[in-house]
Design brief:
The structure holds 2 protein chains of 2 kinds. By secondary structure, chain A is mainly α. Chain A folds into 2 domains: about 100 residues, Rna Polymerase Sigma Factor, Chain: A (Orthogonal Bundle), CATH 1.10.1740; about 80 residues, Winged helix-like DNA-binding domain superfamily/Winged helix DNA-binding domain (Arc Repressor Mutant, subunit A, Orthogonal Bundle). In chain A, strands 1-2 form a two-stranded antiparallel sheet. Chain B has a 6-stranded antiparallel beta sheet with strand order 5-6-7-10-9-8, sandwiched between helices. Chain B has a 3-stranded antiparallel beta sheet with strand order 1-2-3, with no helix packed on it. In chain B, a hairpin with a 5-residue loop joins β1 and β2. By secondary structure, chain B is of the alpha+beta class. In chain B, about 35% of the residues are buried. In chain B, α1 runs parallel beside α3 and α2 packs across α3. The chains are: A mainly alpha, B alpha+beta.
């Protein structure tokens, strides 16, 4: 957490945006946040599809979380709380600035591609297919599968009805089914609100 | 419930089967088949998402050094200093220059690959490389990947176990005892039984893991709740301990596959893990 460095046990530190935050060394909340950081980065990366942007999102998330740490009453809820902030930071990024979009193959440098152990081209293909899902489908899918959010929680976070969330999740998986050579289920729901 | 409603529910969450859907599935082989396919697909989606799409792991493995006071510091390609912990010691960069009090932040927009020069720069860099250097780097990379995979296969298993458990955070907080009948059914599907009081099992579910269904239990112990995954299809050569994402875990070889035991925190759980693992009995008729 770049904004959480300190110069003394009780000394406030200056964060990158000019505000002041304090972090005691070995603070349990800092250790807790750091333990979740890799997961936040993975979550942000799947949302943003760009490692550098994901790092910025996570950095901003941890800073915001540190500032609002008093609001975290139950530390077992930290993971969901931080993931929610990540999602909102990602959404805020799109509100602040409409990002320049590039073809996927241009945005991912070949030497930067991770090599999961073993030959697993099927999973790699699936990763590619997930990345190509429109954000409106990719976001709830990542929230559900990677974040562990329930349909109701996703609906609340995205300001959608539960039926709309189910529809988006259904469509996301249906698109991935097609990639697997399975027959996609008929999608005859005219809108997300119909069941 | 009609077919469309059933498939919408299945597609929305393949693992969630409300009573009305179960009733429909019992009488509709097409939708039941659709559900089976979706469960398999969902297991693969889960596996796919457990790795970052590109390079996030590399960020975590960025060159790390230690500042004078012991503060771990990471540097990124851009030379930005990132302290990974809020530490009392002043941090220093591995790059030239004095320690910065405030880390600079590159605006997110600046890190988006430009349309115009991204492809061109990539192409130019590739063509400037001599052929032998490219071949050598591929060979070295292949050997490195093979070596890592061969020497540390269970690292990935431990990571996947932790990632799976993180997907079900509510399992830790479960306070309702699992009925003996439900527990027995879940365990028998996996070809095992548990020599422990069923009132100690607070959570039991059959979960998709690496393309198979495995029992996921949370058992109440003197050490607190511990999670047990019976991994029939995941073999390990030797016992392995690990710490990841705030959890301590042990994976040990079993007569069929392996057993993973995890607890929250960093305390030693060897004794508890041994007790739990001894209590798992593999049924003779196991397949």
């Amino acid at each position: 957490m770049r904004g959480m460095r300190n110069s003394g046990p009780e000394t406030p530190v200056s964060s990158f945006d000019g505000s002041t935050v304090g972090a005691a060394p070995g603070d349990p909340i800092v250790r807790l946040f750091e333990s979740i950081r890799p997961e936040l980065l993975r979550f942000a990366h799947w949302l943003a599809r760009d490692r550098a942007i994901a790092e910025d999102i996570v950095q901003e998330t941890l800073l915001r979380a540190w500032r609002s740490r008093d609001a975290l009453k139950d530390q077992t809820a930290a993971r969901a709380w931080l993931l929610t902030i990540v999602r909102r930071e990602h959404a805020r990024l799109y509100e602040r600035k409409r990002l320049e979009l590039v073809p996927l193959e241009d945005g991912i440098e070949p030497e930067g591609m991770p090599s999961p152990p073993g030959p697993d081209s099927e999973l790699d293909s699936l990763r590619g297919a997930i990345l190509q899902l429109p954000l409106e489908y990719r976001e709830p899918l990542i929230m559900q599968v990677l974040g562990g959010f329930s349909t109701a929680e996703i609906a609340q976070e995205l300001s959608l009805s539960s039926t709309a969330v189910l529809t988006r999740l259904f469509r996301a998986r249906n698109k991935l089914r097609a990639m697997y050579g399975l027959t996609p289920a008929p999608d005859d729901s005219a809108s997300e609100g119909t069941l | 419930m009609n077919h469309r409603e059933a498939r919408l529910l299945i597609g929305g969450d393949p693992d969630f089967v409300p009573p009305e859907l179960a009733e429909h599935l019992a009488s509709c082989p097409e939708c039941a088949q659709f559900q089976r396919e979706m469960i398999v697909l969902d297991a693969n989606i889960r596996r796919a998402l457990e790795h970052p799409p590109a390079g996030a792991d590399r960020t975590n493995e960025a060159p790390t050094t230690r500042a004078a006071g012991g503060a771990p510091v990471q540097t990124t390609d851009a030379g930005i200093v990132a302290s990974v912990t809020a530490n009392a010691a002043p941090v220093a960069s591995t790059t030239a220059g004095p320690p910065a009090a405030v880390a600079p932040v590159t605006p997110p927009s600046a890190k988006v690959t430009p349309i115009s020069d991204g492809r061109g720069r990539q192409h130019k860099r590739t063509t400037l490389w001599p052929g032998w250097a490219l071949a050598a780097s591929i060979l070295v990379g292949a050997f490195a990947t093979l070596a890592i995979w061969t020497l540390h296969p269970t690292d990935t298993l431990a990571h996947d176990v932790v990632a799976h458990i993180q997907h079900e955070p509510k399992s830790w907080a479960s306070s309702q005892q699992v009925s003996p009948e439900a527990l027995d059914e879940i365990l028998r599907k996996a070809g095992v039984t548990l020599d422990a009081n069923s009132d100690k099992v607070m959570y039991a579910r059959t979960c998709p893991f690496r393309g198979h269904k495995v029992p996921h239990l949370v058992v109440s112990t003197s050490r607190g709740p511990v999670t047990v995954l019976v991994l029939r299809y995941e073999s390990v050569k030797a016992r392995e301990s690990f710490h990841e994402d705030g959890m301590t875990g042990v994976i040990t070889p079993a007569p069929h596959g392996s057993i993973a035991v995890l607890a929250k925190g960093n305390e030693n759980i060897d004794e508890v893990a041994e007790q739990v693992q001894k209590s798992v009995r593999w049924l003779p008729e196991s397949h």
